[in-house]
Specification:
The complex is a heterotetramer, with two copies of chain A and two copies of chain B. Chain A is 35% helix and 37% strand. By secondary structure, chain A is α+β, with helices and mostly antiparallel strands. Chain B has a single domain, classed as Roll (Ubiquitin-like (UB roll)). Chain B is globular, with a radius of gyration of 12 Å. The chains are: A alpha+beta, B alpha+beta.
Chain lengths: 142, 82, 142, 82
């Protein structure tokens, strides 16, 4: 179950398929909040052509699993899925998906927002952006 | 022997993805870093600049952490996932 | 454009299709937050077999369009879709979908959460629940 | 002639989905309600219980609102969408 809920992968994912899996967990689910991060063509005043994500295999998945477990413990929610893509990503493509299913929407919103903040804070994933001026490893993000 | 790994921008700054070296029993991470800086001079600048975390067996640790034979040490520049 | 972004309909919707339409709006979109409300089998200590949504045709769509316009004006976001189903709804089925696309995630979270609160507050839509004890029109909700 | 519509639970409480009636020029919503209560006795209880909003041409209004020929008035019980 867990392995399917936490994934770091090069392939794209289907938000609908993942949402359906969350819905199938429990008929008590009344609110599902998704966060989908996609590749923007512009960052810090700089045009971007494409991007590449590197990660620490094993450690990244471990941190994502911890985030999921903390969210399930700290918020009144039923299930969480976290998927992050790595490798080459084109502009407009999906990067990250976090889905939280809960009985009530407020818990789902809070948990989903916390998960993506925490993902950015503790997960060993790195982004390299290719711009018309060259290649840059991103060092911070808003 | 311990394995030392470099990720993302550090790979190109250090010029290596991975090195292996012997450690004496009772070595701390701080002592290992001194040894590594001699082999890999760019590391000195990188560590002085700050923002780089170091993990031992995939857990972030501080400089007092003991290092044992078989450990995997990794240099992690600022994360940028999401 | 607007007609497609604001809908009250008996048919189900595809979260993926609607998310793709939002993504297609602008390459500046970096964060998309979805809220999906689904039919729970339990409400206020009462088992539910199925539900039915009534609405005031015309007025309901008008309120949803206003919510969308206010969100676009008050939050730093790029696009909003709001779809509400009416008629018979089985347990586990989709009820409502709100999608907000923004450059940054925090604005998307805030706007999406505001839209669903506001939808519940001002939109003339009513819910009838069928329980083993009979039929009840829901008068308030958490 | 104005059209008066009842939604959701009010449909069954009033026993009607829709009624039409004539209004004199200068009528307010409050005056129309008095007239309606005579034709539809359950309305008295419903309005006293509270929580019901009234719209004129799909905008929620207060009791002082003027009613004109051709208006559509609707009784809206507490919303429960979402």
């Amino acid at each position: 179950m867990d392995q399917d809920r936490i994934r770091v992968q090069t392939e794209d994912f289907s938000t609908e398929e993942e949402t359906d899996k969350i819905k199938a967990c429990s008929k008590r689910i009344g609110g599902i909040v998704n966060f989908l991060g996609t590749a923007r063509d512009f960052s810090k005043g700089q045009e971007i052509n494409h991007m590449f994500f590197d990660h620490y295999p094993g450690m990244a998945e471990k941190r994502l699993a911890e985030i999921r477990e903390h969210a399930l413990k700290d918020y009144d929610i039923i299930e969480v899925t976290i998927i992050h893509r790595v490798g080459e990503i084109a502009i407009g493509d999906n990067i990250v998906l976090i889905i939280v299913g809960a009985e009530h929407r407020k818990d789902a919103f809070r948990a989903c927002s916390w998960c993506i903040d925490e993902l950015k804070r503790i997960t060993p994933i790195w982004k390299k952006e290719t711009t018309p001026e060259g290649i840059v490893w991103v060092e911070e993000h808003p | 022997m311990v394995k030392v790994r470099f990720f993302a921008v550090l790979k190109s700054l250090v010029g290596k993805e991975e090195v292996s070296l012997d450690v004496e029993e009772g070595t701390t991470l701080a002592q290992l870093l001194e040894k590594l800086k001699m082999d890999l001079p760019p590391l000195d600048d990188i560590l002085q600049k700050g923002g780089v975390l170091i993990s031992v067996n995939q857990e972030v640790v501080d400089r007092e952490a003991p290092i044992q034979d078989g450990d995997e040490i990794a240099f992690l520049p600022p994360f940028a996932g999401g």
